[in-house]
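Justification of computing resources. Each target in the renewal requires a structure prediction run like the one illustrated here; the chain below, 305 residues long, is used simply to show the kind of job we budget for.
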Amino acid sequence: MWVVLPSRNLARLGGLSASLQSRPVNDTAIPATLAAEYDLPDPPNSSDGAASTVPRRTGRAPGDVAYPKAIKSFVRRAGRTTTGQAKALAELGPRVLLPYQPTALDFEAVFKDAARAGGPNDLQARPLVLEIGFGMGEATAHIAALLPDTRFVCCEVHEPGVGALLKRIGEQDLHNIRIIAHDAVEVIDHMLLLASLDGVHIFFPDPWHKKKHNKRRLIQAPLVAKLAARLKPGGYLHCATDWQPYAEQILEVLGAEPQLANRASASHPELAGYAPKPHYRPLTKFENRGIRLGHGVWDLVFERV
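Resulting structure tokens:
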């Protein structure tokens, strides 16, 4: 369907309107879907007196949409996959990458490791940690090497990052990492059983600095409740950020979750709810650069009660 748009509103279409504005008419016909996409005003009634039925963008899903699209905490940024990363994807992907599935995953099966068959391989006794958003995998590989008897399930949607971590896995001969290249929220909802995790790592999630984008921040009350429900009693949730307003929000959200308790409140009251950096989390190149520039870093560690 096409609608008639007053010419004074064409400027809101930016560069897309250039060819339309060249037309020597006062009102211009454009596709209805385009008018809705740019949240343009309702067009005037058509010549036959019938009112337009163009849908308006309100930020809410229409009532007839059964499964409205959720706000995402990430965008799939373009990036170049290097030759080494591509080789790691091809050679190690079949062993390390786990496809997303809408049903609970048997992690005891996917972590069976022939390389450990001659030694201890009691999967039930080995902790299981979920990591959300590992970037280029520097910290993930470091922690996995430091804690070889801990199993890590890592979610990341950035393909060069997935390739970079696979490359590190091959170079360091790591056997305790599995990667799910999918939206972590859907992985939590469908692939993780309740009380199945010993820990959760969320290091330096996108702070979405602009106030209008704060709604896209990953660490919000609904997600924290889901994570807490999937932690075993005594399991931990460890977050780290270098953006103070986000650190304050995380502290507030985690503190309001009744299934979690702040580990640092009693042991480090001088840190006002924040925690000392745990020994296993390394200082990445990015973090070291921030420290040199005088930027702060805040760790938060809460425990499942």
